[in-house]
């Protein structure tokens, strides 16, 4: 499949083609969907490790004396509380509290932050940040075009990075952290082939893993070095399909499915990221875009709730399928919600789904059904995440 006129390619495009990847348009980019099989790539990440190209993600650098205060104003999180070389999951919301995008913010140095946005929303996020920057001494720069982002995810990920040739610790840029001590949702500077790279212990699979920002001209070298280092650990390249099934098992939201401009963080069960309590050094409340609407939303009963569903049969639910009351036979009952994401779980062996339902049927253990092409397939409400990685 060739790229459409509007589909951009990452610095690793030729590597994907050489590996036989099936390519697909995604968020304005042409990305690898799979290399071998969805199941094999998913299981590799759960059992050993998978290698992902995430270079399509937006990356907006925020610098200046007011960088932390600006991000406190622009985002729902308390970003000024993020320690240096730390990271924080957050969201950018509209004035009405609806979610424009979910993000990860990295505090790389004093007055220097990176805001990592979903590919399809990167231009929107940059525009929103530019509008919200009035009155703040900050500089915003889209640094995505000059970088690549490569992720190693899975229980052998740390061993693979330690074994990767030319990827080295450097005390001058490490933020005072040794790689062996790098915590979850933290980052550090390293060097690859003499160039500075940023390594974050973050990811979107529910496994341990690392995401590495590297200059675009070094992307192919790093990709190949990771594959070579990972061969003894059964590392495999993995595409978007495996990434989606992995994040679903981990109960992680996908923008355009669980999150969109009709949803606030509270409906999505992510109210914890909204810091209505953030205050300045003198104790004054910090106003931020969407604060009033989000405070009102928190205080009001929800019209719908995001829940996990476990299938009791074999037929999977898919996005946009109606969630219905379970009747006596196979006929669907009254509609009480909508599936946002659904698939068979390769790890658990049964269908799983995320769905918005009315509060009355959102309690754990509630027996429901999903209308799968006119037939009511039995599902039950369960906690999310569906899968948690084993703790050593």
Low-confidence region ranges:
none
Name of the level-1 CATH class of the largest domain: Alpha Beta
Main beta sheet: 7 strands, mixed
Order of strands, widest sheet:
10-11-12-13-9-3-14
Radius of gyration: 21 Å
The CATH architecture classification of the largest domain is 2-Layer Sandwich
The run of helices and strands is HEEHEEHEEEHEEHEEEEHEHHEEEEEE
Q: For the record, give the distance between the C-alpha atoms at the N and C termini, rounded to a whole number.
A: 42 Å
Helicity level: 10-25%
| Structural class by SSE content | alpha+beta
β-strand number: 20
- Quaternary state reads single chain
Average residue-wise pLDDT: 96
CATH fold-level name of the largest domain: Gyrase A, domain 2
Counted up, domains total 2
Gross geometry: globular
CATH-level-4 superfamily name of the largest domain: Probable tRNA modification gtpase trme, domain 1
Number of helices, counting only DSSP H or I runs of 4 residues or more: 8
- β-sheet strand percentage: 25-35%
EC number: 2.1.2.10
Binding site for substrate: 211
Enzyme class: transferase
Function: The glycine cleavage system catalyzes the degradation of glycine.
Write a structural description.
Its EC number is 2.1.2.10. Substrate binds at residue 211. This is Aminomethyltransferase. This protein has 392 residues and is an alpha+beta fold. The protein has two domains: 1-300, Gyrase A, domain 2; 305-382, Elongation Factor Tu (Ef-tu), domain 3, CATH 2.40.30. It is 19% helix and 32% strand. It is built from eight helices and 20 strands. Strands 10-11-12-13-9-3-14 form a seven-stranded mixed β-sheet, with helices on both faces. The longest helix has 12 residues, at 219-230. The mean pLDDT is 96.
